[in-house]
Write a structure and sequence with these properties.
Number of domains: 2
Radius of gyration: 68 Å
Shape: rod-shaped
Helix content: 10-25%
CATH class of the largest domain: Mainly Beta
Order of helices and strands: HHEEEEEEEEE
Number of helices: 2
Largest sheet: 7 strands, antiparallel
Strand content: 15-25%
Structural class: alpha+beta
CATH topology of the largest domain: Immunoglobulin-like
CATH architecture of the largest domain: Sandwich
Strand order of the largest sheet: 5-8-9-1-2-3-7
CATH superfamily of the largest domain: Superoxide dismutase, copper/zinc binding domain
Distance between the termini: 140 Å
Amino acid sequence: MSTTYSRLVLGLLATAALAACAGNPSPEGAAAADTTAGVMAAPAADSAARDSAMRDSAMRARADTAMMPPDTAMMPDTSKVPPDTAMMPPDTSMARPDTSMMPPARDTSMMPPRDTTMMPRSDTSMAMARPAAAVTAQMQGPAGRNLGTLTLTQAGGGIAISGRLTGLPPGEHGFHIHTAGKCDGPSFETAGPHWNPTNRGHGMNNPAGPHFGDLTNLMVGEDSSVMVQATTPAGTMNGENSLLDGDGAAVVIHADADDYQSNPAGNSGNRIACGVVKGSM
């Protein structure tokens, strides 16, 4: 119907325009113009009413659908749709490292040997020293009875002798170091003379003495035991005038006291105990 109105309006407008161009509108033209205006006014009012009715209907429809729950019957089921991994970070837990850009392993086959000439040596000054072998004399009586062990150590310009002996006759006894490392009983004469590398006289009270092997007398108790603590007037374990030379040495105890001046042994009597010096330092 709107198309018919449009054609009618266009025809009336064209007639009015021709009359206006002629400058002398006719009564028919004026009537046609009035008719056109009336016709246009009527459809305009109808059109406005229709537009208002359509807007009201659309607004009610929107209000109704706003309160309605969504119809999920036609909605797609996304529970079985695989996740879109396009934006997900890659799982690298099982991936191997890409070594294409890593530098090759260092080849040391052609490298020169390490120069250690300028490197500091390790300090072993605080390391535990290995204990030296002890120098000892196992003392025995005329019948081969064990009387105890004496220990010999370097002590300044002399040699210290220490230990505990038992089984000796009570009283005062001469005590010396002899030149040979042999103790054949019962006389122990195989031990040789006193240790005397400088050929001096016997005894500390002798102006020409003493021997290197001269020691103070032992005082044996009534229980036949004695604690030995004595030091030679001179001598060393090794080196010049050493005790540990090729034929060794022996420690000898005599039956009587040494008078510290008579040659060759201070009138100290027979040899009643002997021990071969063994070990090294």
